[in-house]
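task queued by scheduler; priority normal; single chain, no ligands, no partner chains; default sampling; output format set to structure tokens
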Amino acid sequence: MRNKNQALEPDRFEKIMKPSEFGKLATLDNPDVIRFIKKYVELCEPGDIFVSTGSKKDIQYVIDCAIADGEERKLSIRGHTIHFDSVQDQGRDRKNTNFLMPEGQSLGLGAISEEVAGEIKRNDGLNEINSLFKGIMRGKRLYVLFMCLGPLGSDFTIPCVQITDSAYVAHNENLLYRQGYEEFRKLGRAAKFMKFVHSAGELTNAVSKNVDKRRIYIDMAEETIYSVNTQYGGNTIGLKKLAMRPAIARASREGWLTEHMFIMGVHGPHGRVTYFTGAFPSLCGKTSTSMMNGETIVGDDITYMRERGGAAFAANVEQGIFGIIQGVNSKDDPILWRALTEAGEVVFSNILMTEDGGTHWIGKDGPLPAKGVNHAGEWRPGKKDAQGKETSPSHKNARFTLDMHMLENVDRALDDPKGVRVEGIIYGGRDSNTCVPVEEAFDWTHGVITKGASLESEATAAVLGKEGVREFNPMANLDFLSIQLPTYIENHMRFGRVLKTQPKIFSVNYFLLGPDGKFLNEKVDKAVWLKWMEMRAHDDIGAIETPTGLIPIYSDLKEIFKQVTGKDYTEEQYAQQFTLRVKEHIAKIDRIIAIYRKVQGTPKIVFDVLDEQKNRLTEARDDFGDYVAPDKFPVVAPGKRVER
């Protein structure tokens, strides 16, 4: 302990903080911000600190640092850069993502799935993460970013402070989120901000070296996210999926919803625009749906939803896209294709860089390059890995990052502080043998439970581990839940009850297979399902009532197919796609009920609704067998509600 008469040695924060950078912090008039930054400067021991105000000059400085440090390389198209993650750092790390839980508390999600974020004692987690952060930034620059989740100046807005030693991560944050420095200045000491601390750790060839010590910890008590020894965006871009956890808990406390959903405007007759949200697990068509040609996009990934005037309103948490690039091509994704192949600010990660500074990824137009460089090093066609397996030019989970304002179909409501009024909610997943391509729930409760809370999907390359395994993923949000599942379901039920006008709830399935093992639909067919849902949202057309929901009438789909795709849609195709698969549906219900029986506190309404649906399916099987053609069921007139 220092003697009172001893001069106090300046701490690291004071030593390395340039007056110009400290002035940026002092202007905010928020001691909590300074205390937060100072704490991690002392712990991580960076050699330099840069505070971004979100100005064009500061944003460009971050880009220049990413290039100079080797985290990004320039490509031949102006504004395009490429980043490579470690071979072992190519997806979200579920195993090492943990909630820091106070003594005696648990979310209980481990009883549902071994793949969700784990839980460790809060004190143990903080001790471990602090030991990993100790001195980890020596000789490196610390970037301080002020960002906002949600549109600025809105009840959707959540201020955030991100500190990181990775210019690549900072660059991504600047593209994906709205700058929040001025919001902090406006709020002053009233800013209730989330906090994000990241270090890529020791680098070798500009990638994280100690991936075996990768940790992603979520401290709900302090609304703080810690991420260390990783660069992959899903583990490091704090405001993205990591921020969903504290946001879900905030929403639960305050009576709104944080959802893993896109927002899009579907354009109907006479200039009408109808807004839908949609929840899909990764690699299930979420981004491609939200980017459909002819429609407008508000957001592709994360949504805040609030009640206002008896209606549901939604806003995009982000202003950019961190999307999977596999399969993007000029035919199926023309708008996104143009944004990715023309001049403009785009960050590519883990795709192939050709000798001339060009790019290639799985599914891109054009011939396979003769050679190039990817995340695993030098690449040529036919190259094999250590196990003798041929390597692809880019990783299946390779990504791109861009600001949505680059897209020609961006909806003008993107930055509207009010958000958009939601008329429909869509749930979708990978399902080869059960659900029809598009279906409407009977009502809010039926939709929440049978479409959202019962969602299953096959695992994909977006998650480290097994592919092709069917996973239970309620609302496509299980990975990100920070509250108990029964509470999450009850929140949806309660939210629906306060709405005077409830959005209709739909399910879609782009992955239904025929007897030959081929998909029964083409990629562009999803445009037809969107137009049908838009018309159903306004009760413009009727439907067929089946035991699991309302499906299209053949004559309506035939007309929509002709108008939207120019294709002749046959009755044979319709029957194949919309036959009720009773046996498979009953098997699914049995699986879902078995899961919820393990979840203590599951609302009784979940079992009631699933049992009722199983009874309807059993009656249909008794009457018609295991596979029932749609013409066996009654037609419901436009605007008529099905009583359950």
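post-processing summary
- Residues 323-406 form a domain with the Phosphoenolpyruvate Carboxykinase; domain 2 fold (CATH 2.170.8.10).
- The chain has a mean pLDDT of 94.
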